[in-house]
Give the backbone structure.
Amino acid sequence: MLHGPAAMGEPWQPQPQQQRLPGLGNASEPSAWPPAAGGPGTAAPGGAGSAGAAVSPWDIALCATGTAVAGENALVLAVLFYTPSLRAPMFLLIGSLALADLLAGLGLVANFAVRYLLRPPSEAAELGAAGLLLAAFSASVCSLLAITVDRYLSLYNALTYHSERTLGFTCAMVLLMWLLCLGVGLLPLLGWNCLRDQSACSILRPVTKDNAAVLAVTFLLLFALMMQLYLQICKIAFRHAQQIAVQHQFIATAQATSTRKGLSTLSLILGTFALCWIPFAIYSLVADSSYPVVYTYSLALPATCNSLINPIIYAFRNPDIQKSLWLACCGCVPSTFSSRPRTSSDV
């Protein structure tokens, strides 16, 4: 038996549903890494990229950051590729970091395009963009760890470092690291996603809460390892400075200056890394998709900015890369440019 308007001969009209626009107003909306509105089937009619739908300013900021990250790290890779003298293991690790951050920037841009420009929505594209971000940021963190290990070995085995740390060995280790990170990037496509169960989503949508917790704990353990290595580097650098101080006062003064510069670099590295990543890692460990997405956005943006800062810390402050940049841009090297050789305390 029919009831309502249809029973009285009136045509039935569907009741309009409340439209949900993507952005920060939907506190219960599962967010992504970067945060995104719901997956296929959960977006508002017309999709996030349709006419009249608002584009989140946070997403615009993430996309702009990704563009800047990609351009800056592409410059680093170009300098390393076109400068034959920059073929040492240290520069290979810097190149690995630059490549990882370049892919992270492209991943941010791709995530924006998938969310707002791809019509109709595609689960494969969403999972692919999420996988690219996971692989890129995993490779970035692992490259930072590899640089830390390399600096530790250059001090701990100062006499045999250059003979043991060959370019071929470094290439093999970097390749193994990238294969591992690419495996992490494939996890969303292999089932580490919550597209079929929105209640299981974490703030790293489409990664589930349990898997996001695993990633956060792994990251915190890697950071603890980096901190321990840098503490050992400080101890070794101070010991070297004291040994040289016994030999000659003039050399000791130069060595003390070098050691202070190295320690300031360590403080800059650890401080920047911790400020950018630790709050986001802890938040992703305790939060879920029911938390307001403004929290996720406000913590994810500084984390992505770490890829913008890495070239300044690890590449543009290096005298050899500075020299190559001057030659490429101006065709000459300034007379005030210092080409002092690195010592074991230049950490």
